Amino acid sequence: MEHGVAHEAFDAGEARYELVVSVDARRSGQYNDAEKPRMRQRIYRVLESALAQAGVVRDAVHMEDRGDGVLMSVPGRIAVSRLLGLWMVEVHENLREENGSLLVPLGLRVAMHVGPVRHDSRGISGRAVDLTCRLADSSVARELLDRERADLVLAVSDSLYADVVQTGGKFIDPARFAPARLALKEGAVTAWFHLPGRPAPDTGALGPEEPGDGGVAGTGGVPAGVSAGAGGAAGAGGAAGAGGAAVSPADPSPGAVDGGDPDGEGHEDDEDGDASVRYAAQGDLSVHQHNVYQQPVHIGRVTGAGPRKD
Predict the structure, then answer these.
(1) Residue 308: phi, psi to the nearest 5?
(2) Alpha carbon 21 to chain centroid distance?
(3) What percent of the chain has pLDDT over 70?
(4) Parallel, antiparallel, or unpaired for β 108-120 and 177-184?
(5) Whole-structure pTM value
(6) Which residue would you say has higher pLDDT here, 32 or 139?
(7) If you average pLDDT over residues 272-283, what whole number do you get?
(8) Terminal alpha carbon distance of the chain
(9) How far apart are CA 202 and CA 140, in angstroms?
(10) What confidence tens digit (pLDDT) does each residue in 284-302 have?
């Protein structure tokens, strides 16, 4: 038995579809050498207690230490819905209990995806593992945890959302998940984010991340670099329509409103010579590129009888 996991013996070259779970601690670099062991103990206590509370045998789960987190894989004989539902509920409750006595609460970013996983004597590998780790490390997960002052954020892959979350189940409510478009090293992907015990997060309010980060916020399949949300303004290179309508480049939907068409070809040339940008909006359109604001700026129109705020 390797890694304390009761996996059947199989060749390292074989891949089996398993649930991959990545758990990362918030701002682990801010813990000093004396604090980190205690932080790690708390993470394992939260996760392993939740396994027992969810009725999942510890030896059935592969767990790899990552210093500031844990990488897990769960064999297919254990229902994914059990980890997505009851286990996540118990993780959240255990984490809240741990944080009740801490001046600086422990925050966890958890990501899940199902895909082919290869085991060897040193651990697990495969694209499924890479994707799961990217989701947990994405800027959307990081920003949601900070902005909402939450203890825990869960990110699931688009395929896992479609196959398991969307159908619902015990402790699984698809209405509490919100999509975001991420620009990963391997390419753009859609992921779904959930804050346990709360309504679906407003991922459209998250701005584009800095170069080199894990992903870029967006909603409803909006391309990376474009943020669409209720009353939200576009990030760099993006646009937001009135009433939260999704606005995206290269979206020639009927009734499209172009930001300008200097060459008469049905698109707007940008200053870099890219003639492929097109915008569609169901209302006012505001496009902002390469701007630097020195003071607070209000973008959009103010409705209602109250005084106008510029």
Answers:
(1) -75, 135
(2) 13
(3) 61
(4) unpaired
(5) 0.66
(6) 139
(7) 45
(8) 66
(9) 11
(10) 555 555 555 555 655 655 5
The residues facing 181 across adjacent strands are 190
- β-partners of residue 277 are 268
Distance CA(303)–CA(298), nearest Å, equals: 13
> Rounded distance, CA 7 to CA 118, Å?
12
Most distant pair of Cα atoms in the chain: their distance: 72
Q: Which helix (H) or strand (E) holds 289?
A: none
How many helices, marked H, and strands, marked E, lie in the chain?
6, 10
Tell me if residue 116 falls in helix, strand or coil: strand
The 10s digit of each residue's pLDDT in 157-212 is 999 999 999 999 999 999 999 999 999 988 999 999 999 999 999 998 775 544 44
One-letter amino acid for residue 82 of the chain = R
Determine how many CB atoms are found less than 10 A away from the CB of residue 67.
10
Give the burial class of 185: count Cβ atoms within 10 A of its Cβ; 0-12 exposed, 13-18 middle, 19 or more buried.
exposed
Q: Measured between alpha carbons, how far is 213 from 309 in angstroms, rounded to an integer?
A: 34
Q: Which residues touch 9 (CB under 8 Å, ≥6 apart)?
A: none
Q: At what angle do helices 88-99 and 36-53 cross, to 10 degrees?
A: 140
Given a cut of 80, whether residue 75 has pLDDT beyond it is: yes
Closest to 236 (Cα-Cα) out of 183, 186, 187, 193: 183
- CA dist., res. 192 & res. 158, Å (int): 7
Q: How many CB atoms lie within 10 A of CB 116?
A: 14
Report, in angstroms and rounded to the nearest whole number, the Rg of the chain calculated over CA atoms. 22
Residue 256 in this model has a pLDDT that exceeds 80: no
